[in-house]
């Protein structure tokens, strides 16, 4: 339905007020199409606010969006800072384990919004949390506030991490 709606909206070219349309609509638009109304980083800020789960995780379109976002943000390797993680928004849910490990704790808060993880992502999240080298500190120093910030990651935590968290 969104794809069809986008065809109707863009029938006579890209409208100047495209940012006022639902963000989910942009999932079916390419950054080059959007270029007339804004920058690629603005496009991905909007995409980051969209419900990327409208597209299945394996969908070529969803994978292409992540690749285009990484290129737009000029992310050279597999390390993503907090500013870029914020721009990527829900697209961080599709980053592989190497990105999660190399970015340290800068992705944890954004990752906690993801509905599910692949096994390599789960392992990377546990590795990062176990290291204690995050803004949240080691699990032994966590508070109720920390747990609420990372609530979406709790199902990923294993026994060795859970037993360190103060009661």
UniProtKB/TrEMBL annotation:
<protein>
    <submittedName>
        <fullName>MSLN protein</fullName>
    </submittedName>
</protein>
<keyword id="KW-0732">Signal</keyword>
<dbReference type="GO" id="GO:0007160">
    <property type="term" value="P:cell-matrix adhesion"/>
</dbReference>
<keyword id="KW-0325">Glycoprotein</keyword>
<dbReference type="Pfam" id="PF06060">
    <property type="entry name" value="Mesothelin"/>
</dbReference>
<keyword id="KW-0472">Membrane</keyword>
<keyword id="KW-0130">Cell adhesion</keyword>
<comment type="similarity">
    <text>Belongs to the mesothelin family.</text>
</comment>
<dbReference type="GO" id="GO:0016020">
    <property type="term" value="C:membrane"/>
</dbReference>
<dbReference type="InterPro" id="IPR026664">
    <property type="entry name" value="Stereocilin-rel"/>
</dbReference>
<dbReference type="InterPro" id="IPR010335">
    <property type="entry name" value="Mesothelin"/>
</dbReference>
<dbReference type="GO" id="GO:0009986">
    <property type="term" value="C:cell surface"/>
</dbReference>
């Amino acid at each position: 339905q969104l794809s069809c709606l986008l065809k109707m909206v863009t029938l006579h070219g890209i409208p100047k007020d495209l940012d006022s349309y639902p963000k989910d609509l942009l999932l079916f638009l390419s950054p080059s199409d959007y270029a007339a109304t804004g920058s690629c980083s603005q496009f991905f800020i909007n995409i980051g606010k969209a419900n990327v789960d409208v597209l299945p995780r394996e969908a070529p379109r969803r994978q292409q969006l992540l690749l285009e976002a990484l290129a737009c943000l000029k992310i050279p390797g597999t390390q993503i800072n907090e500013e870029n993680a914020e721009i990527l928004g829900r697209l961080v849910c599709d980053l592989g384990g190497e990105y999660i490990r190399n970015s340290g704790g800068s992705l944890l808060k954004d990752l906690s919004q993801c509905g599910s993880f692949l096994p390599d992502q789960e392992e990377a999240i546990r590795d990062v949390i176990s290291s204690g080298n995050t803004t949240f500190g080691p699990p032994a120093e966590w508070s109720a506030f920390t747990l609420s910030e990372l609530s979406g990651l709790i199902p990923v935590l294993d026994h060795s991490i859970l037993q360190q968290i103060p009661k």
